[in-house]
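REVIEWER CHECKLIST
Item 1: Sequence provided? yes
Item 2: Single chain? yes
Item 3: Sequence as submitted:
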Amino acid sequence: VPPARRTARFRCVLALVEVCDGRAGLPVGQDARPRVPTAPQLFEGACEGRIDFAPRGAGGFGYDPLFIPLGQEQSFAELGEDVKNGLSHRANALAKLRAWFGRPAAR
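Item 4: Structure as written out by the authors:
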């Protein structure tokens, strides 16, 4: 496969479903009404890059020695855990979830 076609993308989607009692969105346990899930909130993270021709580096796991993130010249296995965690699809999705929790409450 030519280098231009050796692209890859890791994706992570976190889903948050709150369970309410069906009455004005009260939290579960405020009365004995049926529990109804709210619409899920989805938080997607992605990390794009390319697949190298040979494994490089000793860190990480799975595809880390082969995956080179967009804008980098080293594989995830060579970049180290701190850099990898800052670029990862999981960290990206989790940052969006954290931002959602920090938003002002809807009125």
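Item 5: Key structural point noted by reviewer: DSSP finds three helices and five strands in the chain.
Item 6: Recommendation: ____
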